[in-house]
């Protein structure tokens, strides 16, 4: 016997839009920094300096071990009159990662140092921002499509505020309108 049921009149079930989780009481600023003129090694040290001055603990994430090594060197050599305390998680003794104000890692969040500020360099943003109060996503021309997709996702996510930072001809970043 043939089924007399028809799916033509059934209501369509739509999957909810994916969101990024940010279980934090305040709005989390998610800064999108498009690297147009300089590389992450030149851009990150001043951002790290500002984050530390504001009292943040920072995690710098990338899946590229060579990039993490270059960022480590850039943090060491940033300014002769200052010191940016940091460590690469894969190269320090077990248990010492927790004491690092700035931790460079490929590991997923939450960071071993209890960071409340994430600097994601390349790759893709994580899906969960729990415990973070600020996010910086640095991307280059090769990652523009990924960044656009993440911008749309962040824009639709409650508790997150995307901010686009444009690199000027002078090599500084300004908030785009």
UniProtKB/TrEMBL annotation:
<protein>
    <submittedName>
        <fullName>DNA polymerase III subunit chi</fullName>
    </submittedName>
</protein>
<dbReference type="GO" id="GO:0003677">
    <property type="term" value="F:DNA binding"/>
</dbReference>
<dbReference type="GO" id="GO:0003887">
    <property type="term" value="F:DNA-directed DNA polymerase activity"/>
</dbReference>
<dbReference type="InterPro" id="IPR036768">
    <property type="entry name" value="PolIII_chi_sf"/>
</dbReference>
<dbReference type="InterPro" id="IPR007459">
    <property type="entry name" value="DNA_pol3_chi"/>
</dbReference>
<dbReference type="GO" id="GO:0032298">
    <property type="term" value="P:positive regulation of DNA-templated DNA replication initiation"/>
</dbReference>
<dbReference type="GO" id="GO:0006260">
    <property type="term" value="P:DNA replication"/>
</dbReference>
<dbReference type="Pfam" id="PF04364">
    <property type="entry name" value="DNA_pol3_chi"/>
</dbReference>
């Amino acid at each position: 016997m043939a089924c007399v049921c028809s799916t033509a009149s059934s209501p369509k079930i739509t999957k909810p839009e994916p969101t990024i989780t940010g279980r934090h009481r305040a709005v989390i600023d998610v800064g999108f920094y498009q690297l147009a003129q300089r590389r992450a090694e030149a851009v990150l040290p001043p951002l790290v300096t500002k984050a530390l001055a504001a009292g943040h603990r920072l995690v710098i994430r990338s899946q590229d071990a060579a990039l993490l090594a270059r960022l480590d060197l850039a943090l060491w050599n940033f300014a002769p009159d200052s010191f940016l305390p940091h460590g690469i998680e894969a190269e320090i003794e077990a248990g010492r990662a927790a004491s690092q104000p700035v931790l460079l890692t490929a590991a997923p969040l939450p960071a071993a140092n209890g960071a409340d500020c994430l600097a994601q360099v390349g790759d893709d943003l994580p899906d969960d921002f729990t415990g973070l109060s600020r996010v910086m996503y640095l991307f280059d021309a090769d990652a523009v499509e990924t960044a656009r997709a993440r911008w749309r996702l962040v824009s639709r996510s409650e508790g997150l505020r995307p901010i686009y930072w444009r690199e000027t001809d002078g090599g500084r970043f300004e908030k785009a309108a």
